[in-house]
Write a structure and sequence with these properties.
RNA Polymerase Alpha Subunit, Chain A, domain 2, alpha+beta, 9 strands, 2 domains, three-stranded mixed β-sheet, three-stranded antiparallel β-sheet, single chain, rod-shaped
Length: about 150
């Protein structure tokens, strides 16, 4: 019995140690590269940098959109499993936008409210519904208002 245990654990120990180390490294790389897709409901959307002379009719108080979105994220399994819809916020930049603005949401538009999670590095793709925001001058009347 001692000879069997000696052969299993002690003989060729450098080779076994290297094999164990390589196995751990491969396991870590594979574990961190697994991607999944997860859907998040009721994600708030904030619009920043709205020009002072413009208004976006879909935007309510505190520059948040009047409705929340359902989005689907594809990315690192370890990060997405820990996230909830209340951890996320979508931030859109209105700089240079005019009239109808068809919004595109990328991973850079996502903000995680949990400071321990770096969402930018761990999300590959964002799937979202079509969003069109209407930007108009604050002082300009619409044709229906002109008829009154």
């Amino acid at each position: 019995m001692k000879i069997l245990l000696y052969k299993i654990f002690i003989s060729d120990w450098p080779r076994k140690l290297i094999s164990l180390g390589l196995a751990l490294i491969i396991w870590i790389f594979v574990n961190h590269s697994i991607t999944i897709t997860k859907t998040f409901h009721n994600v708030p959307v904030k619009v920043i940098n709205i020009p002072k002379d413009k208004i976006i009719k879909e935007v309510g108080e505190n520059n948040f959109l009047n409705k929340k979105l359902t989005i689907t994220l594809s990315g690192n399994k370890n990060i997405l499993e820990d996230l909830t819809g209340s951890d996320l916020e979508i931030v859109l930049d209105a700089t240079g936008k005019s009239n109808e603005w068809e919004v595109n949401i990328y991973p850079k538009n996502l903000r995680c409210l949990n400071p321990e999670i770096d969402i930018q590095k761990n999300i590959n793709k964002v799937f979202y519904p079509k969003i069109v925001l209407h930007i108009k001058d604050l002082n300009k009347k619409t044709p229906s208002e002109d008829k009154k």
